[in-house]
Amino acid sequence: SDGSIRLHQMTSEYPLMQWNGSTKGQPIIALQWALTRPAVFFALDASSSIYIWDLLENDLLPVAKQTMPSERVVTMTLLGEPEKANGLLGIVLAKESGQIDIQYVKKKWALP
């Protein structure tokens, strides 16, 4: 609810990494690991901003942020084929109106 993200290992109650205020206090409403690249995850906050984290490139801050200004995004999920090395990775965004938007991610965050 405060924008903090914690990375846990299943065998410990304490986080391996913790990023406080990663969304400047906005609640995170969706978070998902990339299907095609294990070190990348995406977070959606309550102000419809999507944060891309690539832990191999920078483990302190997101490597990119994209705000969806037109309409509030209520949830997101990722699509892709991890068994294929084509690097296609998409973000499916569900908007408040019920409209669905699919955007493809740059290959540098999608390639295995």
Automatic annotation (TrEMBL):
User: Molecular function terms in GO for this entry?
Assistant: dynein heavy chain binding; dynein light chain binding
The protein's organism comes out as Loxia leucoptera (White-winged crossbill)
Q: Which InterPro entries match?
A: DYNC2I1, WD40_repeat_dom_sf
Q: Which GO terms describe its cellular component?
A: cilium; cytoplasmic dynein complex
Protein name (record): WDR60 protein
Q: Name the GO terms of the biological process aspect.
A: intraciliary transport
